[in-house]
């Protein structure tokens, strides 16, 4: 993603950009600190089934073999929690369709006043004409401004927060925490890093991939350059 | 739910009301047609663990006992598919947070042109002042009208359908199919029929409950009057 | 599987052979009886996402396309319950490692007296020497006879049923009911029909496949001859 | 559990006792090391839905409130991997019936020669008569000895390892790794720490509880003395 129109989003009404941070990750405990690292946990625990032994580099090789052969259960040894910020309701809705090995806690617009809502604007990377992109972003921005105004008006008229928010646009920022294990994350990547995936969930998947490649490269490196 | 302002929603812009229909349900096959009905399938299959035998009325009693004791696995023998229509993106988002024993296929605004979008308006049942309700519904309607207009304008300017839809409000109608087993449906009811649940998902749960009470009453009758 | 030594198992101590029956299956309800069959339910419900329409033969084609493209959620519309009989504890233990879209109720040796236990003997199809097979089956049979005797002795000495059964061999017959949807069943087939799979779970998978091919062929026919 | 006959098990044929160790656990990363601990991760991430802030002792209180109110999703932030040793096939079979938020890799008797098999003997804690306990353990031991002998004989006659093992008794030692999150572990405890639970899985649950009480007490302390 080139994101060549990024500068046009900077001063838009309550514009925010996506951000992902690693919050928690599985780490070896007690005497196991000497025996394994987070990265080699799948290979290390998989050896249980064959009672084989091996050095770190053997476990790395075993990680890759398990992935290649589709023996994915040992990948459940490695769990992550991410803080996610700057994603639209549209992305959120695609994301929560994943059901296995994943969990979320989200900012609830049922409980929080929406008058502080922020918005995530489109990249329109596929358009070449800057004037058209400006016009599109002006529509997106006007929709956001109008929604915040209407929300306030609805609250004044006596609507509950949960009813007032129903006029909020899909582009509104949802943030929260995402829990997953390495197996489920690989499944997410296999679907959402594809060229056919929606650009926003693909952008988020790319950001997630960059983080886990730093932590446990052998579990995810086959997704590079996909 | 009294729904005393229903008449005010009738002529609103592309206003639709919720509707749920039972599409498929587990039914006995071959020689088992003589031995069990859909309703008694949980009790009937649960007998496997004790090799006990009983008549239909014993299986009904066993159904209730399994539920009371928290032995819920045999409820997975009974599966349903529902067609769901007239629910907001807000309801959809709460609903898909359920992960176990459930599945969905939804109308995709990524693939379908959103210029035919319909909308589900709030009931505002908790308000006594008709004039205020009219004003609130006028805001909700104007948001919907504006969104359909802006969507068309964005398409003209070259936005893809998946980007154009990001200005659609949360009140837009999502429709689709819902797959679940009786165990997962009970879990949904236990959370979403509560007084504290959001009114829209509670309304939908009440509609689902009415359908399954007709088909397999002993599996759900403890939820009546909750 | 040729099962050429089947005749040698016939008169062994409490010898039973595997048997699988279809107990329940998803079937269309009400007005949907005119619109779809069990088999086309995945294609029919998948159309929700694109609001497309089609005849039965289009839905059959769509079924196959969904499978090929890995869009497996609509397969969750079709659910099965099977009665399973004549499987060893060893098979049961492999089987229950499947976790998603599946459920079981089993005969409980914790609750039922094990003195009526039956046994499932090996096929030894890979051996050419009948005398060796007879000797092996004699060892298997003697183990079963000895276990039933020791079980009775333990009960006499005051052991609980759940403790007495711990000397039962893995070859003991477990029976029960199996709940699954078409998606989970395809996953089972993809692993357990392979040449590398253990022969007993492969035999059971083959028996399951034969049943569902009769009911919903387009959902499973790519597994024929695997 | 008093385990008053423990001394009688000491010299039995290949007798092993259960042992559980914590191998991996979720831990805060990067800047989050200053903001949270493993224990407060559920409360900390749950705040996302209300955008509230609080000190460590508030998060501990929030942990307990989430548990009490049945808002269990944030417990999925905390994941564990345990090494498990000295459990029977009977316990393993009950355990793997848990399906959600859990995973295992086990020693495979399909792949490993069973002639090194070990055995886990019953406690018979409910019996008062030492002579009877000795007789029961003698039966259990003889079954194990006989099984190891028969296994060797079957291998000599040409049986595969996976067929030879089918005469192994249920009391044989299974070992492996167990992956779970705090939510799933609480579910396990709620069923398996009960007085009605089988003594062996109850013993294992008690051992697991002791470990996690040291690490994240507020997530599990309501199970003490159950």
How would you portray this structure in words?
Four copies of one chain form a homotetramer. Chain A has 226 residues and is an alpha+beta fold. Chain A has eight helices and four strands; from the N terminus they run αβααβαβααβαα. In chain A, strands 1-2-4-3 form a four-stranded antiparallel β-sheet. The radius of gyration of chain A is 21 Å and the shape is elongated. At the A-B interface, α4, β3 and α5 of A face α4 and α5 of B.
As an assembly, this protein is: homotetramer
Number of helices of chain A: 8
Task: Identify low-pLDDT runs of chain A.
Answer: none
Strand content of chain A: 15-25%
Backbone shape of chain A: elongated
Mean residue pLDDT of chain A: 94
Biggest interface, and residues per chain? A-B, 45 and 44 residues
In which range does the helix fraction of chain A lie? 25-40%
Strands of chain A, count:
4
User: What structural category characterises the helix and strand content of chain A?
Assistant: alpha+beta
Q: How is the main sheet of chain A built?
A: 4 strands, antiparallel
Strand order of the largest sheet of chain A: 1-2-4-3
Identify the notable features of this structure and list them briefly.
homotetramer; 4-stranded antiparallel β-sheet; alpha+beta
Secondary structure elements and their pairing?
The structure is a homotetramer of 226-residue chains.
Chain A: H1 6-9, E1 19-28, H2 41-46, H3 56-69, E2 79-88, H4 89-95, E3 102-106, H5 130-156, H6 161-164, E4 173-181, H7 182-192, H8 199-215
Antiparallel strand pairs in A: 1-2, 2-4, 3-4
């Amino acid at each position: 993603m080139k994101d060549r129109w990024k500068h046009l989003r900077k001063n838009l009404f309550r514009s925010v950009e996506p951000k992902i941070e690693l919050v928690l990750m599985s780490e070896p405990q007690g005497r196991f600190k000497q025996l394994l690292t987070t990265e080699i946990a799948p290979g290390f625990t998989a050896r249980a089934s064959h009672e084989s032994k091996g050095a770190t580099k053997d476990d790395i090789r075993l990680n890759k073999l398990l992935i290649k052969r589709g023996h994915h259960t040992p990948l459940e040894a490695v769990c992550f929690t991410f803080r996610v910020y700057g994603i639209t309701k549209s992305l959120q809705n695609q994301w929560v369709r994943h059901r296995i090995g994943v969990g979320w806690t989200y900012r609830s617009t049922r409980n929080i006043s929406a008058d502080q809502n922020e918005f995530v604007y489109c990249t329109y990377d596929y358009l070449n004409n800057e004037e058209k992109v400006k016009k599109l972003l002006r529509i997106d921005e006007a929709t956001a401004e109008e929604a915040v105004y209407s929300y306030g008006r609805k609250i004044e008229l006596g609507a509950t927060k949960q009813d007032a928010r129903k006029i909020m646009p899909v582009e509104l920022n949802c943030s929260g925490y995402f829990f997953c294990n390495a197996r489920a994350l690989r499944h997410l990547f296999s679907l959402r890093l594809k060229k056919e995936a929606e650009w926003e969930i693909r952008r988020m998947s790319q950001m997630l991939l960059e983080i886990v490649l730093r932590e446990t490269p052998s579990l995810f490196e086959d997704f590079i350059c996909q």
